[in-house]
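Action item from last week, closing it out:
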Amino acid sequence: MDSGLAALLGAAVGSATTLGAAFVNGRAQARSQHAQWRRQHRRDAYAGYLGALHDRDIAMDAVLDALRSDRPDLADVDEKIGRFIALAREVHRVGEVVILEGPASLADVADRVAKASGDLSHVMRRMADNAHAGITAHRAEDTALAAERERALYQAVKDFRLAARNVIGKAA
C-alpha cells in the first residue's frame, strides 16, 4: 500500500472515530441535561404542592381552633372557612401539576393526601354546621375525631414528602 493512501485511510478512520465519539458524547450530554431539566420541573411541582398544603393546613388549624371554643365566633369561623376553601382550591390546582409531572406512584401518594384532607375537612364542616345550629353534644367526639384525622393527614403528607424525595433522587 502506498504511504499516501495509508495516511488518507488513517485520517479517514481517525475522523470517523472522532465523529462517532462526539456523537455519543453529545447524546449522553443531551440525556443528562434533559434529566436535570425534568428533575427541576418535578422538584418545583412537588415543592409548590407541599407549600400549598402547608398554607391550607394552617388555615384549617385556624378553623379548628376557632371551633374548639366554648362559644365560637361564627362570623370569624365563616371567614376562616372561606380562607381555607380558597387555599384548598390552590392545593387542588398545584396537585394537578404533580399528577402531570408524575410519576404515577407519586400521584397515588398525592391521592392519599387528598383523601386524608377530605376526611378531616368533613369533620371540620360538621363541627362548623353544629356550631351554627348551636349543637354542642358532639363537640368532644368531633374534636377527638379531628385530632385523629389530623394525624392521618400529617402521615400522608410525610409519605408524599418521602416519595417525592425518592423520585427526585432517582432522576439524578
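Closing note: The domain at 44-170 is CATH 1.20.1440 (de novo design (two linked rop proteins)).
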